[in-house]
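Raw record, unedited: Cytochrome b-c1 complex subunit Rieske, mitochondrial
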Amino acid sequence: MNCLRVAASRAIASAAVVRPAAASAAALSVRNHSTFDTSDYQSPFASAGKKETTRIPDFSKYKGGNAGTNKLFGYFMVGTMGVLSAAGAKATIQDFLVNMSASADVLAMAKVEVDLSAIPEGKNVIIKWRGKPVFIRHRTPDEIEEANAVKIESLRDPQSDSDRVKQPEWLIMLGICTHLGCVPIGEAGDYGGWFCPCHGSHYDISGRIRRGPAPLNLEIPEYE
């Protein structure tokens, strides 16, 4: 049993010898690595505990005169857009009005001049105005007296003769029957004025409806 102890002791001793040798190798290895250049090496814990400072950009160059320039540029752009918009709107309105205005042929028919001295007393003349017939009657003094003698309250469409003429001797009317738009015949009918043969409407010497289906007197246009 003593031998066994010795052997065990020797084994432990040899193991104890081996450990320092391994440690020496490790130490040698560390010493060998320490020969490299570590001047650029910085520990990750080097900045621990230090207070960091934040650098704030300098915005002073954006103040002062530059701000005024930016506002002036903005005003200029707004004014330019306003002028362009107004010009566009004006052009659009002008084009619309030109398209809506009457053509040359329509304007030519809008005004008709008639030489009244060429119309003898007691006669009718028919002219065309805006595609419609116009009756012009040079009335005699007897016809004027007859027109004024009619009682207005007895008329279907009450109207005095003086309200239908500017000068008593000249009666100017649209030659369209107020019933269905037919053209009456002059110097005919029961009242010596105009007669519509389509449905039997009779008008007197002042163009007022006296008998038949027509509801209104013959229309008086604007004239000079």
